[in-house]
Amino acid sequence: MAKIELKPVGTNLLKSVSGESVELQSLWSDKPVVLFFLRRFGCQVCRWTAAEISKLEPDLTAHGIALVGIGPEETGLEEFKEGGFFKGDLYIDEKKQCYKDLGFKRYTALSVVPAALGKKVREVTTKAKAQGIQGNFTGDLLQSGGMLIVAKGGEKVLLHFVQDSPGDYVPLEDISKALDISANVQAGERPQVIWQPTNDWQDKNILERDHVLE
């Protein structure tokens, strides 16, 4: 993975939920920060991952570490907030420049189908459904996400994670390890799902039925 230069990406502008424009680098100017980049706010996997990461919020706060969620668009933001999935501050990268600079890929209409039908996605969506976490198909279905953890003052990048599959996420223990903190939380288990593809795997009805694009 290419080394991330914080100076150029740090000048990218984000919009807060209150409408204020801020530079990305302002989020790590006076404290370490965990930046969670969502695929979209309606994404079921993203909502489950947001809830998982939020388990760390008390320990992050106790260590003076900020927790921030960033979405590529405002679509679905209000519903996401109302659902209480995430305990950190929220911002929007309207130009998706941070996503580009950090190497978070975009799918095509063809490549997103097999990606969304992958085992990792199905595992997480099963876990999400078991916890009552639902999603929808609103917004940009093609954007992927990831995570960036930066030391105070932008001294260095502690973790840079890029999704390969829409079902990929950073385990809580890896986040704690990158920050060199101890956290008293239990991560949600990723269930084992046995699934056999069918001849009509490209049929959109499968995606809508199983919510695998959420």
TrEMBL record:
<keyword id="KW-0521">NADP</keyword>
<dbReference type="GO" id="GO:0001516">
    <property type="term" value="P:prostaglandin biosynthetic process"/>
</dbReference>
<feature type="domain" description="Thioredoxin">
    <location>
        <begin position="3"/>
        <end position="184"/>
    </location>
</feature>
<dbReference type="InterPro" id="IPR032801">
    <property type="entry name" value="PXL2A/B/C"/>
</dbReference>
<keyword id="KW-0443">Lipid metabolism</keyword>
<comment type="function">
    <text>Catalyzes the reduction of prostaglandin-ethanolamide H(2) (prostamide H(2)) to prostamide F(2alpha) with NADPH as proton donor. Also able to reduce prostaglandin H(2) to prostaglandin F(2alpha).</text>
</comment>
<keyword id="KW-0644">Prostaglandin metabolism</keyword>
<keyword id="KW-0560">Oxidoreductase</keyword>
<keyword id="KW-0275">Fatty acid biosynthesis</keyword>
<keyword id="KW-0276">Fatty acid metabolism</keyword>
<comment type="similarity">
    <text>Belongs to the peroxiredoxin-like PRXL2 family. Prostamide/prostaglandin F synthase subfamily.</text>
</comment>
<keyword id="KW-0444">Lipid biosynthesis</keyword>
<protein>
    <recommendedName>
        <fullName>Prostamide/prostaglandin F synthase</fullName>
        <ecNumber>1.11.1.20</ecNumber>
    </recommendedName>
</protein>
<dbReference type="GO" id="GO:0047017">
    <property type="term" value="F:prostaglandin F synthase activity"/>
</dbReference>
<dbReference type="Pfam" id="PF13911">
    <property type="entry name" value="AhpC-TSA_2"/>
</dbReference>
<keyword id="KW-0643">Prostaglandin biosynthesis</keyword>
<dbReference type="InterPro" id="IPR013766">
    <property type="entry name" value="Thioredoxin_domain"/>
</dbReference>
<dbReference type="InterPro" id="IPR036249">
    <property type="entry name" value="Thioredoxin-like_sf"/>
</dbReference>
<keyword id="KW-0963">Cytoplasm</keyword>
<dbReference type="GO" id="GO:0005829">
    <property type="term" value="C:cytosol"/>
</dbReference>
